[in-house]
Amino acid sequence: MDASWEDFGWERLGHGTGRRRLPVWDATALLVAGPDGALLCDTGSSLREGVELRTQAEALLGRRVTHIALSHPHFDHVLGTAAFAGARVYGSEGTAKLLRRGADELYADAVAQGLPEADAAGSLDVLVAPDHEVRGELVVDLGGGREAVLVNMGAAHSGHDLAVLVPGSPALVFCGDLVEESGEPQAGPDARPACWPAALDRLLELGGDDALYVPGHGAVVDAAFVRAQREALAGRFGVS
What we know:
The chain has 240 residues and is α/β, with parallel strands linked by helices. 30% of the residues lie in helices and 27% in strands.
């Protein structure tokens, strides 16, 4: 299984785990596979990207993605979800309601950021909101001892941030846009800047010093990078 990751343009991070940096916005999708299930973290910026991710994941694993975790409700991370029919979809508490009522805002944001109108409209027509909401922590069992821990991070980069811890040696922490490597962390109108540094403290508690931290955009980073970004955000927003 693992030998083919790079052939599909994915970066292998460990046995049964890898991620894809998607074009245009450099958003990351993380795939975690166990013998009984497969979890995809984030689904891309459009239904077209979601179909590409599904096709690649099925070719890599020889089976379907069974679980989806959405890190936050921004278009470049959620609009491909409809490609994964039958998968259980998870998001932080409040994400489902926001996606159901905020389709117009998602469309406007996607088009303003450069997604073609037809792709935006087609993706929103089949928009899938989480059917499982995470209030604290939730363990997804993928079989064979492979687990993923979904953690509601509250409001920070967005109003509804979710992180994913994949225990192992090393552990992986999927950060969503709580951490960005390829550019300055973006704080839009739904951000809660006063809570952001504390959210990064929580990420570091989850993963520890030896974990690999997978940002929503950019290269995989270490704990030192997350600490430095935490201090930069604290200074930028005037919080401790």
